Amino acid sequence: MSTETPGRTPGRQRRRADAVRAAARLAKVSGSALADVDLTLAQYRVLVFLDAGPRPASHVARLLDVAPSTVTSVVDGLCNRGLVHRGEDAKDRRRVVLSLTDHGCEMVTRGDQVVADRLGRLLERLPAADAETALRGLESLNAAMEDYLTETFGTPHT
After folding, report:
1. How far is residue 157's CA from residue 95's CA, in Å, rounded to a whole number?
2. Burial class (CB in 10 A: 0-12, 13-18, 19+), 67
3. DSSP letters of 14-62?
4. Per the domain annotation, does 89 fall within a domain?
5. Euclidean distance between CA atoms 116 and 106, whole angstroms
6. What is the CATH number of the domain that holds 55?
7. Is residue 143 part of a domain?
8. How far apart are the C-alpha atoms of 16 and 38, rounded to whole Å?
């Protein structure tokens, strides 16, 4: 009788580790694509979070799972470029609320385009059926991550 726990076999662990490494490489490829529109991956993530609507700066830090000072640094750069507006919460003036400017909305669109184009180039390297399977897998993984992050942090992470 085997003492291995299902889902914990060395082969499955190796495949999962490889998948995580592939995700890290995909983030690197995405970051490289975003550089073409003068955005870092961290800046793009903040812009995408704010694309869902204004959010308190502390909420953005929690969503990114970083220290508030890290968000402040990223947001300062985005504000200086006219991509993000920093304002007060109408209900609690001590809270800073971040929102996209019109130019920030345009940059989300441009960022989405360059990342999608880069992913498209990667998928073109695969046979059509494998490319479709990979894309469906990424979509499914994204939905699962959204559920997990919502459960963990209590709010959607779009």
Report:
1. 20
2. exposed
3. HHHHHHHHHHHHHHHHHHHHHHTTT--HHHHHHHHHHHTS-EEHHHHHH
4. yes
5. 15
6. 1.10.10.10
7. no
8. 32
Q: Six-digit token pair at 108?
A: 């989300």
List the beta bridge partners of residue 87.
Answer: 97
Q: Which two tokens stand for residue 59?
A: 């909420």
Q: Is residue 27 part of a domain?
A: no
- Let me know if 15 is exposed, middle or buried by CB neighbors in 10 A (0-12, 13-18, 19+): exposed
Burial (CB count <10 Å: 0-12, 13-18, 19+), residue 108 = middle
pTM above 0.85, yes or no: no
Answer whether residue 99 shows pLDDT above 70: yes
Give bridge partners of residue 97 from the DSSP assignment.
56, 87
Q: Is residue 25 part of a domain?
A: no
Q: Give me the residue label for tokens 């400017």.
A: 101
Considering only 7-11, 25-29, 114-118, which range has the smallest mean pLDDT?
Answer: 7-11
> Which string of b and e fits 39-51 if b means at least 16 CB within 10 Å?
bebbbbbbbbbbb
**Tally of structural domains, the chain:** 1
